[in-house]
Write a structure and sequence with these properties.
homodimer; 383 residues; alpha+beta; Ubiquitin-like (UB roll); 2 domains; six-stranded mixed β-sheet; 10 helices; 15 strands; EC 2.3.1.35 (chains A, B); amino-acid biosynthesis (chains A, B)
């Protein structure tokens, strides 16, 4: 399953000793071909980690043979030494597999501002190479976890070809272009420009609309590698839909495992003048701490939805706004609507619909509630 | 003290029964002249409460004789009936004092989306009028509290004239133009255009740079009333500085009493290319939930400062950023700086300095930490 569900890939996940806990912390994914086409999207945070700067460069050629990923340290804000460490990691993988370093992408996740323990990471690469297997996808998915409580994988199998992937991410989870660390693989045979097109289309409406805590990471990376091993070239639309489905599934898994969360909140903005307006309003609602606290307390506090909408530049008239929570239109025409007592808030999923009455565009943003557990998890220790 | 420190003002604060707790909930401030010049600034939230819409209109003439304020209900998102209620409140005050309704500003604070109990509020106006006194400033300040644990007042006395004021606000505290409810009074004799100029200059660098929880209210209002009773017309610069000092003091009192907060965080952005850049970066840092949790846990997690800076459009180079926490430069040139163990985090005030190395402009934004108490206070009941 995971990144080895598609033919033409091997993977491994091991404990290199980067994490003090001794948990798995190093993953390797290798494309055994025959093709090496690849695409990637990266964080739009302007403070980018060293592995993001490296992998962006490597991807420019449209090909990748291997991806090495570590948890236990983000290698972000680590200056020239951090970049040298990323480069050395790629060189080590290349040397072990008989490749050039320019065929190896690097991903890191963990605490910002700390150098990686290269004395543990580099021997770990050798150990991972020794364990590469067509069944290694799950172990790789486990090795990239940080505060994730479960590993995340997804597979879409079509007629003779497959798209699979793994993801990690539980906090600092508001990707601007991608999210956290995701590796997707396929055995379909497509050139890198179509991989890139399908990946950008998929992430734009999946990972990009996950906004768990409003905090954009320095390390977000989504990679898509194609081996061509299935010897099938699917229709582009069919392929793009499979990539989107896997991204959507992984994005949902990220939301369901977000740090400290007790509610998964689906915010659908409808009847917006533009899709950008719908996304802006959805994000503003998703980032309203007071609303997120209210929903944690199972309080359908729609006034906080309206105060969030009011901070945006989207087209709307305040006296035409309508808001439903779990299907009950508690706000109509900017004022009191149906009885808020009718809203059933007992379940983990909360659905908010914000009707801007300004057009026909829409967007869905996913977020979580704000809980004492989130505060505890992010104040009790550095992460 | 408070709004009655300046000559030419009376005030009252009473319990009208708007709050179920029976606590004081209705305040009245009256300018007894001889002048009636006034100015006001209001929330930039596009979803504005009925009293904001009313008071904005009233202020257009540059004069005010009375301000009536209620806690226990924001009268926001209450439709045409809510506006009628605000109008009726102003009419009632006008009738009781022999004024026109157009001389009366109205301010409300409390839960959004609920109509005010006018059967209690209107008789309360009569009761408040009956208790108007030159010593009523403190009672008025107490009557406008919601989740505030203390009432907030401030006075600046100059040579023969005075500026005084009161404020409330503890949550939904990220004013875009003003903050929560503030009434300032002066016995200096100045025309409304100079009051307006001084008030806008003062709020721009005081209340506007308080960002406790990133949530902008629908009801923010700051009013300044001048009685001329001191029969002194101060130099504009001297007057503007007194207004700024009172606004700054009240803004600090709001931060110190913010819901659930255990830290007051002063974020100074220096060496920015423009003041707008400095404010944008300061706000981005102030709104980063992960950083606010870390500071709650007394963890000088500067990586979260850099990830917040990276989401802005301000001019900077990532490898030239410097960050100090409580005077220790823990991040230099975008990487690891002085030992974070040197940072003493034991005190309530935390000082963050973010050096963008891109110019010579600066700005200070104040915020609070994010705590389990904030989550509890905003999830356990509607507010």
């Amino acid at each position: 399953m995971s990144v080895t569900a598609a033919k033409g890939f091997t993977a491994a996940g091991i404990a290199a000793g980067i994490k003090e806990s001794g948990n798995p912390d190093l993953a390797l994914v290798v494309n055994t071909g025959p093709r090496r086409a690849a695409a990637g999207v990266f964080t739009s945070n302007r403070v980018k980690a060293a592995p993001v700067l490296w992998s962006e460069q490597v991807l420019k050629g449209g090909e990748l043979t291997a991806v090495v990923l570590n948890s236990g340290g983000a290698n972000a804000c680590t200056g020239p030494k951090g970049f040298q460490d990323t480069h050395a990691t790629a060189e080590k993988v290349a040397e072990s597999l008989g490749l050039g370093a320019g065929e190896v992408a690097v991903c890191s996740t963990g605490l910002i501002g700390v150098l990686l323990p290269m004395d543990k990471l580099l021997p770990g690469v050798d150990a991972a190479v020794g364990q590469l297997s067509e069944h290694g996808g799950e172990k790789a998915a486990i090795a990239i976890k940080t505060t994730d409580t479960v590993h995340k994988t997804s597979v879409a199998t079509q007629d003779g070809w497959t798209v699979g992937g793994m993801a990690k991410g539980a906090g600092m989870l508001a990707p601007g272009l991608a999210t956290m660390l995701v590796v997707l693989t396929t055995d379909a045979d497509l050139p890198s420009d179509l991989l890139d097109k399908a990946l950008r289309a998929a992430t734009r409406t999946t990972f990009d609309r996950v906004d768990s805590d409003g905090c954009m990471s320095t390390n977000d990376t989504v990679l898509l590698l194609a081996s061509g091993a299935a010897q099938v070239t699917p229709e582009y639309a069919e392929f793009a839909e499979a990539v989107r489905a896997v991204c959507d599934d992984l994005g949902q898994q990220l939301i369901r495992d977000a740090e400290g969360a007790s509610k998964d909140i689906r915010i659908e903005v409808v009847n917006a003048a533009t899709e950008d307006d719908a996304v802006e309003v959805g994000r503003s609602i998703a980032r309203n701490n007071l609303l997120k606290c209210a929903l944690h307390g199972e309080d359908p506090n729609w006034g906080r939805v309206l105060s969030a909408i009011g901070t945006t530049k989207a087209a709307f008239e305040p006296d035409q706004l309508n808001v439903a929570i779990n299907g009950v239109w508690v706000c109509k025409n900017g004022g009191v609507g149906e009885d808020r007592e009718k809203v059933d808030m007992r379940y983990r999923e909360v659905r908010i619909t914000a009707d801007l009455a300004a057009g026909s565009e829409s967007a869905v943003i996913w977020t979580n509630d704000l809980t004492a557990d989130y505060v505890h998890e992010n104040s009790a220790y550095s992460s």
